[in-house]
Amino acid sequence: MKVTVEFADSLADLMADVAVAADGEPITLELPDGAVLGDAMNALGIDEARALMVIANGRVVVKSARPTHQLEDGDEIQFLPPLKGG
Known about the structure:
The chain has 86 residues and is of the alpha+beta class. It contains two helices and five strands; from the N terminus they run E-H-E-H-E-E-E. The chain has one domain: Beta-grasp domain (Ubiquitin-like (UB roll), Roll), CATH 3.10.20.30. It has helices spanning 16-22, 37-43, and strands at 2-7, 27-30, 53-56, 59-60, 76-80. The protein is globular and about 40 Å long.
């Protein structure tokens, strides 16, 4: 299956290897059928415990759900910096 992955520009320093490879453009990631969000993060070299906001198909996926959040062909995943209040 193929999923589209996007990174917020502000993550370029934190995720240099992946962000540079993406060059600011969405990338297509091939995963086996039945993959979960945690599999996608591992394939990208992103620690699942990292404090990032992850959005799959327009919905925030909380950290505890990442290891089991089922992906489907054509899904769109976005990685954003965490929101901070104050």
